[in-house]
Task: structure prediction
Amino acid sequence: MNFQCYNTFSIKIVATTKKMAYQPLKTIKSKVVDITPVKIAAAEESVLRNNLMSIIKRITARGWCPATAGNFSVLIGSNPLRMLISPSGVDKNLLSADDLLVVNEKVEVISGTGKPTAEGLIHAAVYQTRAARSVLHIHTVANTVLSEKHLKLGFIEISGYEILKALPGVTSHQHKELIPIFANSQDMTRLSQDIFKKLQKDKNIKAVLLAGHGLYTWGESPQAAYQHLEAFEFLFEVLSRKG
Result:
């Protein structure tokens, strides 16, 4: 079973072989801040916006963003960290590419007029610990139920399914995939720090769950992240039906 993902754009990421030191993730600020911009051509940013929006539309069509739930981002640059992210408190069915905000790792707005989500700190934690270029977060019945059911255990282990080969680096259905579960919290600074530490410690993690909340996963492009999202949600649906 082969899964292929084609990127429609490329982003220059500054790589490092040194172990990344933890940078405290501060709380959200709603005002526009005066900070060093990332040099990116308007045409390239337009491509990034459109690529992310195409995936958001596919996600909303699946019913994975009830009410105003969900948040999605694509990396613009990593030094300094800049990302395009969906605004908070908005029906994702009504979003356009122009509504996406440019924010930094503290979720401070660089450009755009909407309100950024405090959960952007979790996106930043992923970008600081993974060679990812897009992060997707959704709320479904299956991932909500399973995340609560397995919270005390602290993770969900999945093995024996062919669809696991849709995940990066997985070549066999016998692979054991562990998805850590974190207790939900309104303290996004602390929660993002906990996720940062977990991701930094275990490089095999490809997604995280917040109990009673939802799933975060990522990839080298919005399309790749969507492929991982779809695979995880298929697996969660299977597990939830098995009881």
Remarks:
- The chain is about 30% helix and 20% strand.
